[in-house]
Amino acid sequence: MAIILTHSDVAGLIDRAAVHTAVEQAHIDLSTGAAANPAPAMLPIDSGTVLPMAASARRCRASAVKMLSDMPFNRESGGPAQRSTILLMSADTGECEAVIDGRLITAIRTAAASAVATAHLARASSTVLGLIGAGTLAVEHTRAIARVRPLEKVAVWSRSAATVDRFRTAVADLDLEVAVADSPRHVVSTADIVCTLTPSREPIVEGAWFRAGMHLNVVGAPPRADHREVDGAGMAAARLVVDSRPTALAKSGDVVLAIGEGHLAADDIATELGDVIVDPARGRQRDEDITLFDSVGIGLQDLVTARLLVDAALERGVGTRVELAG
């Protein structure tokens, strides 16, 4: 029997603190060889692309694939630019354990990965969070990073004043000062920790703006080698950490374009997040270091989150059970 979990099922089951712990362990497992996460292929379709994001993890006794449809033209009709569904498979029997809507999982595990990176790379004294973009990812990042650093203030920029207003309402319970920035440069000049959360094609942040000691989570650009949020000089100016080296070299425009321009070499993409967790010397070494986590997003993060959700659903009797082989 397989279980189907809808978006509303996921919303009722998901535990953000548990996802943080699971994502952190997943990156350790990837670094030590207890999990596998190859770079995803890109499957072209008429109106977009599809990425099958596959992973396996011994700890979860499962494999998974998230089918991510990147459909930018959906915005013209008011629909989401990305849709995704996760298939979780048992490593013991090979049967399908679950089919799960991926929308909320993607946002929460992405923010969890940024929070894990922040916990291991940002200065412990960081109190000001900067957000370039104010949508759902901004809300989730604020909640996730507030759990790992003593935040007092959030500086947020968006092209849409209405989006900033919705962000302010969504994080009102966190008792943080929310300041509206007039430009991405203003955010970078203000914050100890900066999260870039836009689907940008051209750089929206310049390395010339970086300040000693800051940490950046570069998150928003879609998994396409021609999209990026940070210019090549910025990528080269920071101590760079990626979620997965094969994925970054294939799908991170921030990385690929910086290499193409000569700011980086492929050998510079050498440190994964799991490496830093296992060996902190591979991350921040001095307070004045600039650290940057380039997050494309990987299927392993989806797998460990799906495992948590399926276990919780079975315990609570949530979801729809179906006999796929019947």
Automatic annotation (TrEMBL):
It comes from the Bacteria. GO terms for biological process: carboxylic acid metabolic process. InterPro entries: NAD(P)-bd_dom_sf (IPR036291), ODC_Mu_crystall (IPR003462), ODC_N (IPR023401). One of its GO terms (molecular function) is oxidoreductase activity. One of its GO terms (cellular component) is cytoplasm. It holds the Pfam family OCD_Mu_crystall. PANTHER family: KETIMINE REDUCTASE MU-CRYSTALLIN. Belongs to the ornithine cyclodeaminase/mu-crystallin family. This is Ornithine cyclodeaminase. It comes from Gordonia lacunae.
